[in-house]
Amino acid sequence: MNPTVLSAQAVSRSFGKHQALRKVSLEVRRGERVALLGASGSGKSTLIRCLCGLESTDADGGRIEAFGQLLQAKGRISPEIRALRRRIGVIFQQFNLVGRLSVMHNVMTGLAAEAPLWRALSGRYAEADQARALDALDAIGLAPQAFQRASTLSGGQQQRAAIARVLLQGAELVLADEPVASLDPQSTHRVMEQLAALNREAGMTLVVSLHHVALAQRYCERVVALRDGALVFDGPSSALTPGFLQHLYGTAAADLLHEPGTDASVNDSRHLALAA
Ligand SMILES: Nc1ncnc2c1ncn2[C@@H]1O[C@H](COP(=O)(O)OP(=O)(O)OP(=O)(O)O)[C@@H](O)[C@H]1O
């Protein structure tokens, strides 16, 4: 069995009186592709932010380890977080690129953790590093856009540039927070394919929060589902039938069953044929 790369034990996080996460526990093993599923407001982003140490848990809010090392416990982020973050690539819904900088420069920030600070700030990277960045862009089909400003890219292209950045970073674990939420259906599938390729070809472990069951089923073998901040399902994505989702989510299930840009639901063979 592959080693555990991520472990969350009884993770809780409140904002004022609102409990966004309620004792969520999960373990992710190397090489897994895990979809984090849940309706809007169920706690997916909060969990991802806690898992990468961008958000602290409540003071009595459990413990998170990455690669067998403490990432945070009892609301305190580990002093070793910088070293851990080098191994964790994070992809956000809102691309997080600097629009006025070139695509290449944005991708090179994936090296910021290993480059001296002056170099990261000035954007003057060694030729060998530039070659690596071009390779990463080439791998995701964006080499022709390497020297364009990031702001001139489409949403799908920007998200693929963010993928190139984690590729260059050499992340072992990728946490992607609704990376396709603002994309059209075609870009959605392209981005999801490329995330799956990172997993298949570069061996990265992938945890990706998604809003739609069809995407989770197509691209991830395991689903962790949240409802109102609590973990309500952790198992094979194939087990998520519409009936079971109805049971888990009640009326909110309809929101999760429809893939963006289609009228199809998860059990609809037309949709599956289209996606194939
Ligand atoms: N910084 C914050 N301050 C106050 N409340 C917050 C904060 N961050 C999240 N919340 C609340 O915590 C709950 C979970 O939010 P979260 O963003 O994690 O959900 P989500 O499942 O990612 O939702 P979506 O799919 O809409 O992005 C929501 O009720 C949200 O309003």
UniProtKB/TrEMBL annotation:
Keywords: ATP-binding, Cell membrane, Membrane, Nucleotide-binding, Translocase, Transport. It comes from the Bacteria. GO terms for molecular function: ABC-type phosphonate transporter activity; ATP binding; ATP hydrolysis activity. InterPro entries: AAA+_ATPase, ABC_transporter-like_ATP-bd, ABC_transporter-like_CS, ABC_transpr_PhnC, MetN_ABC_transporter-like, P-loop_NTPase. Pfam families: ABC_tran (PF00005). Residues 6-253 form the ABC transporter domain. GO terms for cellular component: membrane. PANTHER family: AMINO ACID IMPORT ATP-BINDING PROTEIN (PTHR43166), PHOSPHONATES IMPORT ATP-BINDING PROTEIN PHNC (PTHR43166:SF6). This is Phosphonate ABC transporter ATP-binding protein. It comes from Xenophilus arseniciresistens. The gene is phnC.
